[in-house]
Structure formats: C-alpha cells, structure tokens
C-alpha cells in the first residue's frame, strides 16, 4: 500500500501506452502537483517527455507539431473537459492519449468524441491518481476549507469524496467504512462514499479474500481539539509549523 508507487505506476503506464517518440504532457494545475511529487523533471526527460503544458494556458498556433504525441493527464472536471474540447477542435499535436485521474462520465466521453473531428484521440483511460502522494503512506487533497456555516462546503465535499474514492481504487481496496457517530458531517461523507462504491460496483469488485479487509475511518477534527496542538519533534514538523510545507515544498 504505497501511494507514491501507485502514482508512479500510473504515470509510467500512460507513457508506455503512448509508445516511443517525442511526447508532450498536457496537465491541469492539480495534476501538475501530483506529478511533481513523484517524478523529477530530469526523470521525465529520460522518458522522452520534452514539453510540459497547462491545459488552462491553451493558445491557438498554426505551427505544426504533428510529429509530437500528446499525453493528457487531467482531472475530469467540467472546466477541464471544456478546455480539452477546445484543444481537440483545433489540435496542435498529431496524436492525443487522454488519461483522467478519476471516474469520467459517459456524457463527457461522448462530448469529447463529438468534437474529435480530426480523429486525433487514440486512447481514453481512467487512472485513479486524484490525490497528492506526500509520502508512501500519506496523501493530501489540498482542500483548505471544508466548513460553511457549520455544514459541508459543497465544493470541498465533492472533492474529498472523489479523492477518497480514487485512493481506494489506486490501492485496489474496497474498504469497510466507519465514522464518528456523533458527527453529522462524518456521517454524510461516509454515506456518500458508500453510495458511490455501490454505484461503481464493477470497479470495486476486487479479490481481497486472502487479505484482511481495509477500514476507511472518518473522523471529525472539530471534535478532537487536542491533536492539532501536538507537535512531533522532527525537522519536517518544525518547518511546517514555522514556514508551512505545501506538496513537500516550503
């Protein structure tokens, strides 16, 4: 259960599926941070990735780059789908390999297929790498605020739900879900995750008969005032306390 290794395996698979040749990597702001945590720039150059672009910074160019293969690695958000449709309407590269970091709806796939008039899309896959792997056993969803008037912030709720589903799928685990019974927020999140697992039953049909079943434990931080006051005596903890560490960067 190594989160860093899971992300690395996914990215290596994306690159292998694109085949040999000069390649570019088209990502969004979040997937850029996911990648930078597990691979150095020099390592990507060795894999024939010579160009890195953000999908939000699209620009129309008449310059032909048809000899370059484009590996797309983005979150399946409404904004990213819109940007990707704009890219496919006026493709700059010869081939596109679409990789989404989480489950994408059939409606979005159909919309992308309709704008692919030049038939440049060669492959569409889901790779469940929708989280920042800080350490082998620690991840972050980079959600800054969850509460809004003592209720879930709707955007944060959706992001946390998607992120936890992605972690479970990347680790090939269909967990038992336990939550803090006196927390309405924890209960709502647990119920939503349980519904999503039932909805995507085919993806969670995993053979865990030889292993003890994993447990997803959901706790409410506002009901635990002591833990935030505890500081580990390590350089990492002290640096984060004084300077703040975000995605392993100060």
Automatic annotation (TrEMBL):
One of its GO terms (biological process) is vesicle-mediated transport. Belongs to the STXBP/unc-18/SEC1 family. PANTHER family: VESICLE PROTEIN SORTING-ASSOCIATED. This is Vacuolar protein sorting-associated protein-like protein 2.
